[in-house]
Write a structure and sequence with these properties.
With 282 residues, the chain is of the alpha+beta class. 44% of the residues lie in helices and 15% in strands.
């Protein structure tokens, strides 16, 4: 069996907290995997192993998954995963750590007792939904405003949230592990990947313009900075299309929904969608 990766939307109780859930199976050979910055943390629960947390990442995390391994995973929205799991975000930046304590025991048991991977994935989601914890509502609103389809500057956003810039930065660091501008940069790149997955535009320049980059060279620099490779290397020799063979639509649906609404609005007003993100700052 070759490596397989199947994404799906989370259960309704986790909507807005989780971007996607998945089941990954490796074949007879070890599988090299490049985990990318998403703005949030990921929970990896290998069948027969110890649950692990990945991120939040500011650069690619490389790992080799052993052969014949099955993993059920959860990708959280920025600021959502760490409150639900009781782990401070700033302690996880660019780290991959084994989960500990009652959460690890409960998740490990849920996966081990399940009849199969699908049942294990559902059990993990039921456990998370049962925690009934919610992220900081101010941070949730900040994340929404920092999405690539809600172009804003950091200072105006702080004013709109009735915070000073330093207060907003501290709140963002506590909840997501990174500062607002770093989070905005990561979400913008995720927007590029979402549009590439959807097959938008006729080239890298179209994708760069639509997601707020100055030009395709700017997008390429950010891609190398965040992933360690160029867009063409990342997406399988097609810099404007995802050619990995996996369907990531469940993960990118929140980005595409916001983009579509903005696109329709722009078309109705016959506006040209331009970059208003401004210069990059950490």
């Amino acid at each position: 069996m070759e490596q397989t990766y199947d994404e799906s939307a989370p259960v309704p109780a986790l909507a807005g907290l989780v971007r996607t859930v998945w089941i990954q199976r490796t074949g007879s050979q070890p599988y090299p995997q490049r985990d990318l910055p998403t703005g949030g943390v990921e929970l990896h629960c290998p069948v027969g192993g110890v649950p692990r947390l990945i991120g939040p990442l500011t650069r690619a995390h490389l790992q080799v998954i052993p052969p014949r391994t099955t993993i059920v995973g959860v990708r959280f929205m920025p600021g959502a995963g760490t409150p639900m799991l009781g782990v401070p975000a700033d302690e996880l930046v660019d780290c991959a750590v084994e989960l500990w304590g009652p959460a690890a025991d409960a998740l490990g048991s849920a996966v081990a007792d399940a009849a199969g991977p699908q049942a294990a994935l559902l059990a993990v989601q039921r456990y998370l939904a049962g925690r009934q914890l919610r992220p900081d509502p101010v941070v949730a609103e900040m994340v929404r405003r920092l999405m690539p389809w809600e172009p804003t500057g950091i200072a105006p956003l702080a004013d709109e949230l009735a915070l000073s810039e330093s207060q907003m930065r501290r709140r963002c660091l506590t909840a997501t592990g990174v500062g607002p501008k770093t989070l905005q940069r990561t979400l913008r790149f995720q927007g590029y990947l979402a549009l590439a997955q959807a097959g938008f535009g006729s080239g890298l320049s179209d994708l760069a313009a639509e997601t707020g980059y100055a030009d395709h060279a700017h997008l390429t620099r950010e891609c190398v900075r965040l992933t360690g490779v160029t867009p063409r290397e990342l997406l399988g020799d097609k810099a404007d299309r995802c050619d990995c063979g996996h369907d990531h639509s469940a993960s990118y649906r929140p980005f595409l929904a916001e983009w579509y609404a903005r696109f329709v609005q722009a078309q109705s007003g016959r506006r040209v969608l331009t970059s208003v993100h401004g210069p990059d700052q950490a």
